[in-house]
Amino acid sequence: MKHFCSSSDAALMGQKSPIHMHQVHSDVVDVLEDGMGPFQDGVITQRRDVALVIRHADCQPIVLYDPGREVLGAVHAGWRGMVSGIVQVAVRKMESRFGSDPSRLEVHIGPSLCPNHAEFKNFLTEFPPAFHPFQIRPHYFDLWAITKMQLVEAGVHLHNIRVERVCTLCGSGNFFSFRRDKTKERNVTVAFLG
Ligand SMILES: [Zn+2]
Predict the structure, then answer these.
(1) Is the pLDDT at 35 greater than 90, yes or no?
(2) CA atoms within 13 A on the CB side of 54
(3) Does pTM top 0.70 for this prediction?
(4) CATH of 7-191, one of 3.30.450.150, 3.30.200.20, 1.10.10.10, 3.60.140.10
């Protein structure tokens, strides 16, 4: 797992084929080796000649990496994807398909809505009861903590989960935010096996 942040990374990225997802807030995670898509909200692979691309503006970009089996996963998780447990689907598929041990996975949750901006007025109908304890004040939820809970339930170790804790809405990174601007623009998270 690498961050796309240096010129050497950019050069490496340039040699890899970008794999885009047709993100529809599903819980579908595809194995890249099984075909060329169209992919939905999650892709896992062992291929080193590709870069997995997540487009997001407030939803969570989640990158999963198995350093033992050299498996990479990329997931787009908005609240619908969280409700349907897409990150758990990804962990299970890495395990069943590539033999990944969930306890060895390293997971990175990228820029997305912070607890102060994750407002869900209709949470009683939209969220399952398991999410309700993560309400930090009326109608506001710690979505990062919910994803961490889901990952731990799937067997990932808490100390292997890194939350960037940068908010697309209020963070200083000039991110695109759908909630703030109703924009069609998206931030991009790129992950590849180096
Ligand atoms: Zn915020």
Answers:
(1) no
(2) 33
(3) yes
(4) 3.60.140.10
